[in-house]
Specification:
The protein is mainly alpha-helical. The protein contains four helices and two strands, in the order H-H-H-H-E-E. It has three domains: 49 residues; 31 residues; 39 residues, no CATH class. A two-stranded antiparallel ribbon has the order 1-2.
Length: 160
């Protein structure tokens, strides 16, 4: 009887856990990847240019850049008006939402879990659950079976 051996082998060049790589190395390889993607898009530029010219890009180029010293009065009036209109609409929408949600709590309040449930889920005593609930920053001490046995409260330094 023949046994089938796996032909797949571990390739050490593949990174299985990228978060274990040094940050500098990850950043450097990110820049290398970005550079090669940029080069790849650069290679597509002639085809994109050809399609653009076929779809009317040449006419747009002539209208925008080739006619020198030509000023369109519509553009001189329309662009500032559109700019002001967009700014007014954005500010009006922001003010509407500010007035609409001012003084309102948008998140629903939640019920705290009962201390008995916390103690049961942790495998601890109700007194230990009460100590946990009463502390802002605590260190939980565990026994060899990973059951909570004690709590040490930590004093938080005031922030300036």
């Amino acid at each position: 009887m023949n046994t089938v051996k796996s032909t797949r082998r571990f390739d050490s060049r593949l990174i299985q856990k990228p978060h274990r790589q040094p940050r500098l190395q990850r950043t450097a390889w990110g820049f290398v990847t970005l550079a090669f993607w940029g080069f790849y898009f650069y290679l597509w530029a002639p085809l994109v240019t050809l399609v653009s010219w076929l779809l009317g890009g040449q006419l747009a180029w002539l209208q925008l850049y080739e006619y020198k010293q030509a000023v369109d009065p519509f553009v001189l009036i329309a662009l500032p008006v559109m700019l002001v209109a967009c700014a007014v609409l954005l500010i009006a929408w922001a003010e509407y939402n500010r007035l609409r949600f001012a003084g309102k709590e948008r998140r629903l309040p939640h019920q705290d879990a009962p201390l008995a449930d916390i103690a049961r889920d942790l495998g601890a005593s109700p007194a230990l659950a009460a100590q946990l609930a009463g502390g802002k920053a605590v260190t939980l001490h565990m026994d060899d079976q990973a059951r909570p046995v004690g709590v040490t409260h930590q004093v938080l330094a005031p922030t300036a």
